[in-house]
Design goal:
single chain, mainly beta, eight-stranded mixed sheet, seven-stranded parallel sheet, 0% helix, 57% strand
C-alpha cells in the first residue's frame, strides 16, 4: 500500500485510484504518520486483506496526519479505518454505488464520514466515528456481520433521510 511518513510528505492520487494490499501479519492500504497527508482527488478503491480477515484500509497516526478521501466519485473501501494520536480521516461517500465494508476505530484521533445518495457502510464490528453525516437514503448496516451484536459510537451526528439497520434481542434487555 502507501506508507507516507513525515510532515513534508504529501501524496496525491488522481481519479479512479486503486490501492490493493494483502498480508498475513498486517495489511495497510494507506498508512500516514508524523504529519503526512494523502489525498484522493476522485473516485477511489482501497482494499486491504489480512489473510481471510479485513486489513486496515486507512490509518492516520499522529498529529497533523490526514487521509482525505473526499474527491468526487464512487468510493469502494474494503478494510478498517483507524485514527490514533491526532491523526485524521475524512471520507465522503456521495454516490449510490459507494460502499465501506469494515469497522472504524478512533483513539485520540478524528474520523469524519459523510454519506448520502444511497451509499452504504457494511459495519463489520463495533465502531466509533467523530462525525457522521447520514443523508438521503444512505445506510449504516450494523447487521452485516451475523456474529454477535455491535455498537456504533458517534461524537457528533447529523443528517436527514439516512438509515441505520440494527440487530437487537428485545427479550434479553442486554442486547436490545
Amino acid at each position: 500500500g502507501i506508507f507516507n511518513i513525515g510532515s513534508q510528505s504529501n501524496v496525491v492520487l488522481g481519479d479512479n485510484a486503486t490501492v490493493t494490499t494483502e498480508g498475513t501479519a498486517a495489511s495497510y492500504g494507506v498508512l500516514n504518520q508524523y504529519g503526512a497527508n494523502t489525498t484522493f482527488n476522485g473516485a477511489a478503491t482501497i482494499t486491504a486483506q489480512k489473510g481471510s480477515e479485513l486489513g486496515t484500509a486507512a490509518a492516520s497516526y499522529d498529529e497533523g496526519s490526514l487521509i482525505d478521501i473526499t474527491g468526487t466519485g464512487r468510493k469502494l473501501i474494503t478494510g478498517n479505518l483507524n485514527t490514533v494520536g491526532g491523526g485524521t480521516i475524512h471520507l465522503d461517500m456521495a454516490t449510490g454505488d459507494s460502499v465501506l465494508t469494515g469497522a472504524s476505530t478512533v483513539n485520540n484521533g478524528t474520523t469524519n464520514i459523510a454519506m448520502s445518495n444511497g451509499s452504504l457502510w457494511n459495519m463489520t464490528d463495533s465502531s466509533a466515528v467523530t462525525n457522521l453525516d447520514l443523508n438521503s437514503g444512505a445506510k449504516v448496516d450494523m447487521t452485516y456481520n451475523p456474529d454477535g451484536y455491535h455498537t456504533l459510537t458517534i461524537d457528533n451526528f447529523s443528517g436527514n433521510g439516512g438509515e441505520f439497520h440494527m440487530k437487537s434481542d428485545l427479550d434479553s434487555q442486554t442486547d436490545g
